[in-house]
Amino acid sequence: MDYLGNIQNKTLKIIYKVIISVQRFAAMLVGIAVPLIVVYQVLLRYVFKSPLMGIEELLIFFIIWLYMLGGSVASEQRNHIECGILTLYIKKDSHMKLFRCFKSVFSMAVCAWLLYWGYWYFSYSLKMWKISDILHIPMFFGESAIFIGFLLMFFFGMLELIDNFVAYAKCREEKAE
Q1: Beta bridge partner(s), residue 19
Q2: What is the pLDDT of residues 43-85, one digit of tens each?
Q3: Bridge partners of residue 131, in order along the sequence
Q4: Facing residues of 138 across strands?
Q5: Could you report the per-residue pLDDT of 11-40, keeping only the tens digit for each?
Q6: For the residues of 4-39, what is the DSSP string, one character each?
Q7: Which long-range contacts (CB under 8 A, 24 or more apart) does 32-36 make?
Q8: Contact criterion met (CB below 8 Å) for 50 and 44
Q9: Of all residues in the chain, what percent are helix, strand and coil, respectively (each to 5)?
Q10: Per-residue pLDDT reduced to its tens digit, 124-139
Q11: Phi, psi of 158 (to 5 degrees)
Q12: Do residues 142 and 65 make contact, with C-beta atoms less than 8 angstroms apart?
């Protein structure tokens, strides 16, 4: 969903555009890099019979980033995987909007908890500065994706929460008139 039209403040609009642009560019970059690395390794191993040591280790960094950025893009575009069984039984529009508010609050509570643990892991990884076995790449570069991904999901979840409460408030106002 595009929130850009709802943002009135010019500075906030620019910040939002930057966040979206960086997120989408990074997701596209790792989305292209993962299959290219896999194809490269397959060609080296099975066609040229000379596998490259450490390429699987390198691939893990890209896969972690792809997974976490994919989750944040899904949060931004509201393409969550949902099991909407309860929504089949809710008939009134106002009840559906209230249900979405509760669902958003619960989602944000879970996301805040995960963000807390993601931050803890981020700071632990920064403090320990572990390196990978073969290529000696700092593990922080892969492990930081967890915190950054949860932070982006939290940001977009808060926007969805605000939108759901605004929609419910408008529904209540219309009902009162």
Answers
A1: none
A2: 999 999 988 888 999 999 999 999 999 999 999 988 887 877 8
A3: 138
A4: 131
A5: 888 998 999 999 999 999 999 999 999 999
A6: GGG---HHHHHHHHHHHHHHHHHHHHHHHHHHHHHH
A7: 33/62, 34/59, 34/62, 34/63, 34/66
A8: yes
A9: 80, 0, 20
A10: 999 999 999 999 999 9
A11: -65, -40
A12: yes
Separation of alpha carbons 124 and 161, rounded Å: 30
**DSSP-derived secondary structure for 30-75:** HHHHHHHHHHHHHIIIIISS-PPTTHHHHHHHHHHHHHHHHHHHHH
108: closest CA among 164, 67, 148, 70? 164
Query: For residue 55, what are its two tokens?
Result: 């390429």
| Residue where the block lists tokens 């960094």 | 61
Average pLDDT value over all residues in the chain: 91
Structure tokens at 20: 């979206």
Cβ pair 149, 72 in contact under 8 A: yes
